[in-house]
Amino acid sequence: MCSGVHIPVMEVLGAGYQQADGFLLLSLRCKTETVSLPFKLYCLAVMTLVAATYTVALRYTRTVQSELYFSTTAVCITEVIKLLLSVGILAKETGSLARLMTSLKENVLGSPKELLKLSVPSLVYALQNNMAFVALSNLDAAVYQVTYQLKIPCTALCTVLMLSRSLSKLQWFAVFMLCGGVTLVQWKPALATKVQVEQNPWLGFGAIAVAVLCSGFAGVYFEKVLKSSDTSLWVRNIQMYLSGIVVTLCGVYMSEGAQVLEKGFFYGYTPYVWFVIFLASVGGLYTSVVVKYTDNIMKGFSAAAAIVLSTIASVMLFGLQITLTFFLGALLVCISIYLYGLPRQDTTKIQPSDTKNSKERLVTV
User: Fold this and answer.
1) What is the dihedral of CA 191, 192, 195, 197, to 10 degrees?
2) Which residues make Cβ contacts (< 8 Å) with residue 195, sequence separation at least 6?
3) With the C-alpha atoms ordered 239, 245, 248, 249, is the resulting torsion angle positive or negative?
4) Cα separation, 248 vs 243, whole angstroms
5) How far is CA 254 from the centre of its chain?
6) 3-class SS at 321?
7) Segment 133-147 mean pLDDT
8) What is the value of pTM for the model shown?
9) What angle do CA 234, 16, 162 make, to 5 degrees?
10) CA 22, CA 218: separation in Å to the nearest integer?
11) Rounded CA separation 40/242 (Å)
């Protein structure tokens, strides 16, 4: 069994990174590790439901509740839960309390430079998560789900610029197709007839634009930090979440400090709000299982299915009116996600037939 936590160079055949709202998750593809198709389908089904439910539930809490909670406090609590989960996983990884304390003392208390380095993605992720609340306060869940897929070209661009990687022609084609699909969705925004709160679609789209930029930059930046050393992924997560808690607390104070002091930190919290926080905290961890045991094509199907489920839920809960441009745009986005995830042809290896032909040509010469 290969671990998705440490990165032993000699055992790694390939690595993939995926960012999920503050969790950067590493999956390693190993020779001996195989899982059944039903298990893969189970993982994808749960991940699809989590992705779709999160956006719909967050949209519900921002547009239906009479007492609106403070979004900055929700982001802060999410960071705290992620920190606790990461500490728990690191404790299981180290195997004993003494080793856990030694690891935390060495990598957290004894590494102020590393904490400062990880404060960069913490700040960016905090901004991204707050922008998600702004976006879903002004855009329907289905529109948000489609438009948020702009994180794919943004991450691709950051990967090319920051990690000097290249994309295939098909991937570039998929990127432009995705952008075209999002443009169609926003051309004539679908209306939600059952939502009574005042909304600003342009503010919502602007919030998504900031969120996808943050997602692309922070994900690639954190990947670069991970690859710079063999430090455990969960240690890196702990370093990032400690900084994230400080950053989000500053955000609470700066944006809604007076109101929080007057009404309380947990003002407006309902079981639905806690459910949203739970999905945001645990969803990223579950994504690690999906990234580890499935391929890009299946994850593409999951993203497309989440868009479909969000659309159906939006029609039923919020009275979303589907327009032709929304349908065509969503379809283009789903197709582009599939094309982007298609495996690239490995041109670095010589096929057996090519090797045989090469030998024949050498003999002839």
Assistant:
1) -20
2) 63, 64, 140, 318, 319
3) negative
4) 9
5) 26
6) coil
7) 89
8) 0.75
9) 90
10) 9
11) 33
Return d(Cα 183, Cα 176) in angstroms, integer: 11
**First-last CA distance in the chain:** 48
Helix (H) or strand (E) holding 185: helix 169-187
Mean pLDDT of the chain: 78
Looking at this protein, which amino acid is placed at residue 309?
L
The span from the CA of 364 to the CA of 359, in Å, is: 9
* Amino acid, single-letter form, for residue 47: M
Closest CA relative to residue 48, chosen from 126, 137, 145: 145
Q: Report residue 57 as tokens.
A: 């539930």
> 336 near 177, Cβ under 8 Å?
yes
> Over the range 329-349, which residues count as b (16 or more CB within 10 Å of their CB) and which as e?
bbebbbbbbbbbbeeeeeeee
Total Cβ atoms within 10 A of residue 107: 18
| CB neighbours of residue 68 within 10 Å | 15
pLDDT at position 294 is 63
